[in-house]
Amino acid sequence: MGKCVNGLRREKQWKIDKVIEHRRKIASMYKTLLKELNIEPPYEPEYAVHTYFKFPLLVKDRKKFFKEAEKEKIELGDWFISPIHPITKNLEYWHYKWGVNPIAKFVSQYIINLPTHERIDEDFVNEVYDFLKRSRNAM
Predict the structure, then answer these.
(1) Domain 3-138 sits in which CATH superfamily?
(2) Listed residue (76, 72, 68, 75) closest to 111, CA to CA
(3) CB 52 within 8 A of CB 45
(4) What pLDDT was estimated at residue 5?
(5) What pLDDT score does 99 carry?
(6) Which residue, of 37, 42, 84, 116, is most buried by count of CB atoms within 10 Å of its CB?
(7) % helix, strand, coil for the chain, step of 5
(8) Domain boundaries in the chain?
(9) pLDDT of residue 7
(10) What is the Cα–Cα distance from 65 to 67, expressed in whole angstroms?
(11) Which one, of 78, 83, 85, lies nearest residue 102 by Cα?
């Protein structure tokens, strides 16, 4: 490959590495605050390197939790709201029978996601901490 192509590849790899580094840093902050609230953070096996595109958290009532977060201008994500996300209707068209995977069914009903993107900083994580502290009973 030419020098130009190799240079572009290295530049893109550097950017991806920086994005992943940022997401892991934010996830680490989330884990710390969850531990302070006596909430078990998501499991990450030692052999795995999670890139934390999203940071998952289970709550008791997702709709209510989202409404409270919206009032306080706390950004949340609603990914994985179906066992075969993003499909939420007519699961049989995808050869999926509701309830055949009880763990995915359970998680999809109670999961929310904390953001980890580049605009998330320590100040936002502190806002999330305060919000989760006030909403502790909802988790």
Answers:
(1) Aspartate Aminotransferase, domain 1 (3.90.1150.10)
(2) 76
(3) no
(4) 46
(5) 85
(6) 116
(7) 55, 5, 40
(8) 3-138
(9) 53
(10) 5
(11) 83
